[in-house]
Design goal:
Helix content is 36%, strand content 12%. The chain is of the alpha+beta class and 104 residues long. It has one domain. A hairpin with a 4-residue loop joins strand 2 and strand 3. The termini are far apart.
Length: 104
């Protein structure tokens, strides 16, 4: 059984090989592919929920530490991590349209 630890958002990487989408080449590409696959409206609803209610403790994010890159890779919870990263710094994702920033 795993343990619960606090990890800074910057130490998490969305899974480039997430089974929900095609293999991504980097973090931004992984988030873009995830949004395209899940749908922008669904991701926006998730963003609103996280923004207003926070994360539900029972929905823990499962990660695996990758020693080669020195970061944790998200195994379960990629959508939540992607949304948290967008909420924290939307400008790091150049594929987002400028007008969507106001929605978040």
């Amino acid at each position: 059984m795993g343990q619960t630890i606090n990890i800074k958002l910057d130490e998490l990487l969305n899974d480039f090989e997430n089974p929900r989408h095609d293999i991504a080449v980097n973090e931004e590409d992984a988030v873009k592919k995830l949004i395209e696959k899940v749908g922008g409206e669904n991701m926006l609803r998730l963003a609103e929920d996280i923004y207003t209610s926070g994360l539900i403790p029972s929905n823990e994010i499962v990660v695996i530490y990758n020693e080669v890159i020195g970061k944790y890779v998200v195994y379960e919870g990629n959508r939540r991590v992607a949304i948290m990263k967008i909420l924290k710094d939307p400008e790091q994702f150049s594929f987002l349209k400028k007008n969507i920033f106001w929605l978040l």
